Amino acid sequence: MAKKKTNTKSSTKKKIKLPSFQLSSQQKLVLGSFLVIFGIVLCIAFVSFLFTGEADQSTLSDFASRDVQPKNWLSKTGAWLSDLFIQRGFGVASFIFAGLVCLSGVYILTDSNRTKLRKHWFWGILIIIWLSVFFGFFGTKIDILGGTVGYEINTYLQDFIGKIGVSLLLLFGVITYMAIRFRLTFENVANLFHSAKRDIKDEFSTANNELIVPVDNNLTEEAEAFKSAFDIKEKENLQKDFEDEIDEDLSSGGMTLNTNITSDENFTSNTQTALEVNIAEEDTDDDIESDLAIEVAKFAEEQSETDNLSDKLVEDFGLFDPTLELAKYQFPTLDLLKKYDSEGITINQEELEENKNRIVDTLKNYNIGIANIKATIGPTVTLYEIVPDAGIRISKIKNLEDDIALSLSALGIRIIAPIPGKGTIGIEVPNKNSTIVSMRSVIASKKFQSSDMQLPIALGKTISNETFVVDLAKMPHLLMAGATGQGKSVGLNAVLTSLLYKKHPAEVKFVLVDPKKVELTLFNKIERHYLAKLPDSEDAIITDNTKVINTLNSLCIEMDNRYELLKTAMCRNIAEYNAKFKARKLNPNDGHQFLPYIVLVVDEFADLIMTAGKEVETPIARLAQLARAIGIHLIIATQRPSVNVITGIIKANFPARIAFRVTSKIDSRTILDGAGADQLIGRGDMLYTQGNDLIRVQCAFVDTPEVETITDFIGSQKAYPEAYMLPEFVGEESGTSLDIDISDRDKLFKDAAIVIVTAQQGSASLLQRKLKLGYNRAGRLIDQLEAAGIVGPFEGSKARQVLIPDLTALDNHLENEIL
Ligand SMILES: Nc1ncnc2c1ncn2[C@@H]1O[C@H](COP(=O)(O)OP(=O)(O)OP(=O)(O)O)[C@@H](O)[C@H]1O
Predict the structure, then answer these.
(1) What's the confidence (pLDDT) of residue 297?
(2) Which Pfam family would be a valid example here (predicted)?
(3) Pocket lining: 436 vs ligand 1, CB cutoff 6 Å
(4) What spacing in Å lies between the alpha carbon of 459 and ligand 1's midpoint?
(5) Contact 810, 790 (CB under 8 A)
């Protein structure tokens, strides 16, 4: 069934398939050498044509006749081919064609990158055409320089844009080519001119120096002493002049150019030596300047070396596409989601009037006058915003919550006094006929579809009927709580569905913990697309509490590994890291890889805390504190919002919270740090907070059959070979199968035994240090030592007891074991 569905989907979105040629090594050798030889043949024929072409013209018509012998070095075929390419084709530019054929052969032989070859062909053909037109521009008849194509294009173009137009067009062609191929910019050209100018200047000054040097060399010692004394004096004078000038200028309040010039002139006309020295000094300055310029240029080049490499890689292969492995993956379509009859808000004018009158009357009974009242109708609740008369205390209205509820004879009345940022008081009154907010409507909304959030979640609709979309990556973890039957599971499904509609399997992975064993089982079908699991574990959805501890610890290892990667890549968060990886700036050989977001969903968190306590709380708190930057996000749901479940540590690390209806104000306080959740009406009515305001949202409804169709749709498509593997974690207490086979023992078993017995301390970390092992291997060794009766069982935080007192006893023990 599922398969049929996919087929219908894929038939609607048929893509044009490009044939992909996969050649065997032999085929490559044959084809490659054929192309190389054919290229050489063309080249020989073309060269020969330059000398024999004219003479061979007459023989071309008698191709079949054996009496006629052309002069071309490759006889008839050579004459025909070169006539076809040069005379009737593109003129001498056809040599490039021969080169391209040859090059193709080399590429196939060496199995080099085809993208590059395609690029050579593309540019090669453009150059052939350009050259042919260029040569044709100068010819008055068809000749071998431009060939027929060059001549014809020229005459055609000249009829429309004239000779000047064609020459400008050719010039434009060159500029475009240079700009695209060699990344020529206006600045490059300007720099080129500048450096040329500097070169000329340098040459000029070197020539001057050469003139000066002999004079300097011929100076007698006396003259030299005189010269340097003079120089110093001149310099001092110059310095003094300059300082005087500055003083003068400062005192006169402005610098006069004339004075400057005069002093310069005076200085110049003083002596010839001064001039020489000056020139020499200038030269040195120039040298320094040019040296500096060169250094700066070098520095810039060095800096951009990796960039250049990655740019080149991107140019050759394009940006890295993480979705490539499942390139044909199709996102679930909207029609998999149901439309509901009771969708769409219908305004009941009577109900509105009635409620309004009751609110006004009740408040009047308590002497509260209303200046203004306005209603906003939401899917399940209507918000009446009132502006009380001046001088009324807000707390007075707030205290009337129960009285208003009584007079309206309605549950779930909530008073927001005042509405933040509005200056009004809000009274939320549930609608008599609530409407369902379908998942379909929120997924289809423009807000969700066009959102560029990292992990967008369409939670439902607000009271003003706006689709409420939040970014899980920004939250960065979510706590969901509410009494049983109030819509938590639906809420979790809405979150997961949103991500399935927006994120490719390569971009996000879920770790699902479901102690109830029934809520999330449907997601088993998408295990190889979207789920992450521990190596060796059978089910991707974790239902066993002990496995949860391992998974959480494994996620902590994944977090540490990711931080390490981010550190080496010098990125601050996963988005930057992935962007860098996509731009091919990170080398996969250094362990870098595209990192998918990981969303850990824990349903029934209370159950976990009750059974595993600190062992769960600690890794959860660690993840919650640190994992945001590396793309691990937590969603925990609980139906028991008591303080021993939602502890201080958990609360501190989960600023984003969703409260469904709870039974008591205390529970509401535990979740939201305030009342409100106890006044909700249930069935997906919820309050959302991200640390500040409370937003009332009607959760989108997605039914189990809908989730099933979506998971069927995804599950029937091509998947990865296995689920995303989390790092292995071996807990101290786990895997102690005491019947470990002697032959299966680690090579370092004996060494480990010696270390443990010598130190009389049975801990894995000791082995890690002494034998330089990873945690997992050390853990396995400890298990084997336990199985061999060398260390005792796991004793919580204490090190295991060592059962063998010394090395001699150990030897005896091991010998007996073999016997
Ligand atoms: N957003 C919603 N819109 C309309 N109805 C809803 C919505 N959410 C939940 N409901 C109704 O409430 C019922 C219970 O919801 P759900 O199973 O999600 O509750 P729960 O809090 O997960 O309960 P439990 O803790 O027992 O699993 C649903 O079967 C559905 O009829």
Answers:
(1) 44
(2) FtsK_gamma
(3) yes
(4) 14
(5) yes
Structure tokens belonging to residue 63 = 């191709």
Closest CA to 475 of 602, 594, 637, 632: 632
CA–CA–CA angle 262, 265, 266 (5° rounding): 85
CA–CA gap between residue 168 and residue 643 (Å, rounded): 80
C-beta of 683 in contact with ligand 1 (< 6 A)? yes
Q: In what order do the strands lie in the sheet with 425-430?
A: 370-377, 381-388, 425-430, 414-416
Contact partners, residue 446, CB within 8 Å, separation at least 6: none
Alpha carbon of 395 to those of 398, 492, 679, 695: distances in Å?
Answer: 5, 36, 18, 21
**Cα separation, 699 vs 436, whole angstroms:** 9
Residues 399, 415: Cα–Cα separation, whole Å: 9
Angle ∠(491,496,499) on CA atoms, nearest 5: 130
Average the pLDDT over 21-50 and give the result.
Answer: 85
Peptide bond into 476 cis (omega under 30): yes
For 764-793, write each residue's pLDDT tens digit.
888 877 887 777 788 888 888 888 888 888
pLDDT digits (tens, 9 = 90+) for 646-659: 888 888 889 999 99
Q: What was the pLDDT predicted at 72?
A: 83
Q: How many whole angstroms from 703 Cα to the centroid of ligand 1?
A: 9
Block residue for tokens 């009859």:
341
Q: Is 658 in the pocket of ligand 1 (CB under 6 A)?
A: no
683 with 674: CB under 8 angstroms? no
Give the pair of three-digit tokens for residue 693: 């305001």
Domain map (residue ranges) of the chain: 25-184, 220-303, 349-430, 460-725, 742-818
Closest to 549 (Cα-Cα) out of 766, 211, 156, 557: 557
CA distances from 684 to 426, 513, 522, 559, 758 (A): 21, 22, 21, 33, 62
Cα separation of 263 and 762, whole Å? 90
**Angle (nearest 5°) at CA 703 between 701 and 704:** 150
CATH topology of domain 742-818: Arc Repressor Mutant, subunit A (1.10.10)
Per-residue pLDDT tens over the stretch 673-698 = 888 888 888 889 999 998 878 899 99
> How remote is the CA of residue 682 from the centroid of ligand 1, in Å?
8
Q: Which pTM value belongs to this model?
A: 0.57
Residue 380: what are its φ and ψ, rounded to 5°?
A: -125, -20
In contact, 428 and 463? CB cutoff 8 Å: yes
Minimum-distance ligand 1 atom for the alpha carbon of 483: 21
Q: Which residues pair with 414 in a beta bridge?
A: 428
| Rounded alpha-carbon distances, angstroms, from residue 722 to 182, 238, 553, 634 | 45, 82, 21, 23
Residues, the chain? 819
Higher pLDDT, 595 or 434: 595
Q: Any residues with CB less than 8 A from the CB of 185 and at least 6 apart, and which?
A: 179
ipTM of this predicted complex?
0.96
Whether 482 has a binding-site annotation, put simply, is: yes
CATH (residue range 460-725): 3.40.50.300
Q: Which residue's alpha carbon is nearest to atom 10 within ligand 1?
A: 683
815/819 Cα distance (integer angstroms): 6
Side-chain-side CA neighbours of 579 within 13 Å: the count stands at 8
766, 756 contact by CB (below 8 A): yes
428 beta partners: 383, 414
SS3 per residue for 164-206? HHHHHHHHHHHHHHHHHHCCCCHHHHHHHHHHHHHHHHHHHHH
- H or E stretch including 381? strand 381-388
